[in-house]
Recover the amino acids of this structure.
């Protein structure tokens, strides 16, 4: 007979938007914030997240809701994994201190609640084109883009699978 075990501890790192500010207040600083879809987690993702985490003491990851992924135009069958599954996988990573799901295309409200010391995006973004950067700079925070060490993407993986 199968035994039911308690939920794994990483589940506690998944926080609702409503409880985000309170949760982040208790985290060691500097707090680093990043965001993305993180649909099919791959080496590029985990390397990027570990590098972002290395910039501070606590990494908060804002993950796009299923609805916001569709707003981004990633394709009619995206996301592959549900927002709750993507949040759980991200929370299980040792580099992650907190995961929150956001419903907009851009996590402006998350940035306002978290008020990260450092906001991080991938090297494919220009800081001047990020509306989030303006908010972070307004209170003296720092915005950093991180170069990708591995040329990986969920879209490329899906194209590879679909071509077989």
């Amino acid at each position: 007979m199968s035994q039911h075990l308690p939920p794994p501890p990483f589940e506690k790192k998944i926080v609702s938007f409503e409880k985000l500010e309170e949760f982040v207040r208790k985290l060691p600083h500097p707090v680093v914030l990043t965001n993305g879809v993180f649909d099919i987690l791959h080496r590029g993702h985990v390397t990027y997240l570990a590098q972002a985490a290395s910039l501070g003491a606590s990494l908060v990851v804002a993950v796009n809701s299923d609805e916001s992924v569709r707003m981004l135009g990633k394709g009619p069958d995206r996301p592959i994994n549900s927002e709750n599954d993507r949040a759980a996988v991200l929370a299980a990573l040792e580099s992650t201190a907190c995961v929150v799901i956001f419903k907009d295309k851009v996590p402006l409200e998350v940035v306002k609640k978290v008020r990260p010391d450092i906001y991080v995006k991938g090297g494919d973004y220009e800081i001047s084109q990020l509306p989030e950067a303006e908010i972070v700079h307004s209170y003296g925070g720092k915005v950093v883009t991180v170069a990708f060490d591995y040329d990986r993407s969920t879209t490329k993986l899906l194209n590879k699978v679909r071509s077989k």
Residues 34 and 120 are 5 Å apart (CA to CA). Residues 8-161 form a domain with the Rossmann fold fold (CATH 3.40.50.620).
